[in-house]
Design brief:
Blueprint: H1 5-20, E1 41-50, H2 54-66, E2 72-76, E3 80-82, H3 87-91, H4 99-102, E4 103-105, H5 106-113, E5 116-119, E6 122-126, E7 131-134, E8 137-146, E9 150-152, H6 154-157, H7 163-172, H8 181-191, E10 198-202, H9 212-227, E11 233-237, H10 245-255, E12 260-263, E13 266-272, E14 277-284, E15 294-301, E16 304-306, E17 311-313, H11 315-320, E18 352-354, H12 367-385, E19 398-410, E20 413-425, E21 428-434, H13 448-466
Parallel strand pairs: 1-2, 1-8, 2-5, 8-18, 10-11, 10-16, 11-12
Antiparallel strand pairs: 3-4, 6-7, 7-8, 9-17, 13-14, 14-15, 19-20, 20-21
Helix pairs in contact: 1-8, 2-12
Amino acid sequence: MNISRRDLLKFAGLSAAAAAVTGCTAATGATPGAQGAVGKMLGKHQVVIIGGGFGGLTVAKELKKIDPKFDVAIIEKNDSFMSCPFSNCNLGGIKGVSLSTLTHDYSQAVEKNGYGMLTAVVTGIDRANKVVYTSKGSVGYDILVLAPGIDYNYKGQFPTWSDAKIAKARRAAPAALVPGGEHVALDRMVKNMEDGDVVITVPAGKYRCPPAPFERASMIANFMKNEGLKGKVIILNETAEVAKGAAFKETWKELYPDVVVHQDNCKIVDVDFDKKEITYVQTVFANKEDTEGVKTTKTLSYGIFNFIPHNMSNPVIEMSGVATTPDGFKKVKMATSPEKPVSFQTATDASVYAVGDVVGHAIPPSGQSAIWSGKECAKEVAHVLHGKSYSVASALPYKSANVCYSMVNGNPEEAIMVNHEFMVAGPVIGSKGSVPKGDEANNKFRSSGLAKATHDWYKGAMRDLFN
């Protein structure tokens, strides 16, 4: 029997799924307000970190680098790590990238860096007694670092949806912004797809990795082009904002003019997952002064639906009881004082810090931002443990605190980038981004040099976290 390349891709996806299905960084599976496993005290540590994603792993490693005597432990639900950054390259069929490329063994990081790790679900946090309750027992701390990542706010976006319908949405139209099974499911759908349209939604408000949906659209379009599949990649954007907008739009116009379709100001009203139909309202504004616009209700059929709902902080944040912003995302309010104008310490509790997606700073929620904030948070915590003071403001401004690459083409491999400078902006860390031309000679945003930099960044980040 002759096996086609597409069949090989399908087999490879199934095989990788078996290895990667348990990987899910920074997700805790916690329920707000829950407490359990109180009776068994597992021990106490100087620093306990909730979440083994980019931010949590960085804080743990940096603390042990600063002082090997520090007693540091991470609580993480899963026994393996899967990376969201770089994962769209797998969907795009980029050579040498698979689900296995994205999956890493936590035990390697533990052995190399010397901190501890408890694989357990967080079920409650008692700040008064400095105890974290988990599915395996209780853990005491002197300092707690919250790095749990995001969750999806289906209920806030669709109040009338039942729990069963939300569960169906997670299965049938995986968002794939929280790593693990969602990435496995979306990978399977793309690798097994036939002719038809792929629909990707872009939510309003803060969400993890703003360029991700647009990079994903580019990579799926690349896969479809390489496989000779007919159909479109339709982006239903709830706003008109496009991260790295000029660079992505240049790419779509030149490489995927008949494939990628971006529609702005599209609000999802309902989805029939059995009929594979999306109902949405698109608003067209006459000009910048028009605040009402003309609204039109539309129905769209799809073959694959990558449904990214509104994001919010992981429920661990609500469970901790620290103050949060009033918006739907519930960012953690950060401490500020004349001595420490910006900090990763929470405004609520001097013994609790936060890093990564959940911080209340005005910085992009990305893997690189989490690494940068993890390093600064570690310095701040280490100084406290040593009885000294440290101001994050001393590290600012920082010109390339967040360098984010997005792969947009596979043959030849090409990518675009954004570079953020971080600075003190009142009581928070602010950011200013720029999208440089990668190919100055041809006046283009995308380039093969940036594609190589994308590979190099990912390899370097994984080497830094796990070696």
